[in-house]
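Bumping my old thread because nobody answered last time. Still need a sequence for this structure:
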């Protein structure tokens, strides 16, 4: 569903991502682990088109999206939940949700999001800026789901969120995958969260993918050692 081949990206003269190649199958949850500053956010911004790629290829469901601006990548089936959530603080929860839509929002889509995140229904008239960090993260995920994507890309969804809400987000991602056969690619530093959700894990170090493991043969201690280097 997502195919990345020999991707190179960076900022100005800084070459951050080096020849990244990976795939994510339909209904697979792929977690990309890495310490701060190792290139996770740069990789994800290049996937969605916020920063340009220097070379390489990104395909969604077989369609080439490399070179397309972000809004056209969204139309091609990719949705992005950025680090820090980036919700609209002065808009209500409901207004934030539909801000991600193009055209009419189906009632069934909203109902599905409210079922996944009941707090969003309870607070649908409240301003986004008045929500807690965990509630804002659920809102950011719900906004991305409004577009009915094929691939959902989340950049560090557990950052600054209390442990009980982290478990709720992990449960929601598994439920989203089950309901929609959705491919989910998520960057993370928290190993316990990775263990809750992943089908496969990649580790990024200094802009290069250095380790890959399926859940069946995943060595969490090895991942921790790689993150500690």
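Sorry it took so long. Here it is:
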């Amino acid at each position: 569903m997502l195919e990345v081949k020999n991707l190179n990206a960076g900022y100005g003269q800084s070459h951050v991502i080096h020849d990244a190649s990976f795939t994510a199958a339909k209904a697979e949850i792929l977690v990309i682990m890495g310490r701060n500053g190792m290139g996770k956010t740069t990789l994800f911004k290049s996937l969605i088109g916020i920063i340009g790629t220097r070379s390489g290829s990104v395909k969604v469901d077989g369609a080439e999206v490399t070179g397309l601006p972000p809004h056209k990548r969204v139309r091609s089936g990719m949705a992005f939940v950025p680090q820090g959530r980036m919700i609209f603080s002065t808009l209500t929860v409901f207004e934030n949700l539909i801000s991600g839509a193009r055209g009419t929002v189906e009632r069934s889509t909203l109902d599905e999001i409210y079922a996944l995140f009941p707090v969003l229904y309870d607070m649908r008239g409240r301003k986004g800026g008045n929500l807690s960090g965990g509630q804002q993260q659920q809102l950011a995920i719900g906004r991305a789901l409004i577009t009915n994507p094929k691939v959902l890309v989340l950049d560090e969804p557990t950052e600054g969120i209390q442990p009980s809400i982290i478990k709720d987000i992990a449960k929601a991602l598994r439920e989203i995958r089950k309901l929609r056969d959705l491919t989910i690619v998520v960057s993370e530093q928290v190993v316990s969260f990775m263990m809750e959700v992943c089908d496969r894990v990649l580790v990024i170090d200094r802009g290069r993918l250095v380790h890959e493991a399926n859940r069946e043969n995943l060595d969490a201690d090895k991942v921790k050692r790689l993150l500690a280097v």
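The two ends are 32 Å apart (CA to CA). Let me know if any region looks off to you.
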